[in-house]
Amino acid sequence: MKKKLLVFFLFAILQSYGQEQFTVYFDTGMDSLTKLSAVEFKSWIDWHKRNKVVKIHGYADNVGKTGVNSDLSVRRANTVAQILKMNAIAIEEAEVKGWGETEISMDKDLNRKVVIYFEKAAEKPDKRKELSRQVLSAKKGSRIVLKNLKFSMNSGKVVAGSSSVLKNLVEAIQNNPKLKIDIQGHICCNTDDTKKLGILRAKTVYNYLVSLGIDKSRLSYQNFGSTRPIYPIPEQNGFEAEANRRVEIEIIEN
């Protein structure tokens, strides 16, 4: 049985060569998206209205009965297909299929998923980065998570690969001269923020913006610690911890 599944997966990979992919995740035994995936999926839909969805493939982990997991993988694929359809994304020609159990990752959280294969539509050249577009359309009071902004463990130091996020934020502010923001730090995993990591990280972003010429009158920062988690603390897995451990900007004026 495992050999047959391996052949199926290899065939799927070959068939999907050259196509873009987007993956959403599910909690154990559920056919509804995790809270974080639901947010990310909505954002993905907003930016991919014109793309062609080719395949919607559902998967389950190997916990429980194989037959139940096979049905669950189908329901997950159908859930995603329904969401796409409700958002006016054409899926009539897409292959909607459940592949049952998969053991591709040792982390079972990563095996409970649906993979969307799509082909990008031709787009007009647009030099503005995604963050600039988000900020441009954001209303007063809106909050935007600075995705992929990572810090060294237990510190306010930004890791090298995250500097581009801050550069994009500088560009977004420069492109919107009326913009004023509040930088908000959040933590995960522990309700006792003894190291004040939230304020350290928010202040790091603030200092970076000021160092590149952004006027202080357009900026403020504060620490919410663990008081506004997306998921309850302690988190159940790495996805939830990463969602809680974040820096957001709130639009004060735009």
Automatic annotation (TrEMBL):
PANTHER family: LIPOPROTEIN YIAD-RELATED, STATOR ELEMENT OF FLAGELLAR MOTOR COMPLEX. It comes from the Bacteria. It comes from Flavobacterium cerinum. This is OmpA-like domain-containing protein. The keyword Membrane applies. Keywords: Membrane. The lineage of its organism: Bacteria, Pseudomonadati, Bacteroidota, Flavobacteriia, Flavobacteriales. Residues 138-254 form the OmpA-like domain. GO terms for cellular component: membrane. Gene3D superfamilies: OmpA-like domain. Pfam families: OmpA (PF00691). InterPro entries: Bact_OuterMem_StrucFunc, OmpA-like, OmpA-like_sf.
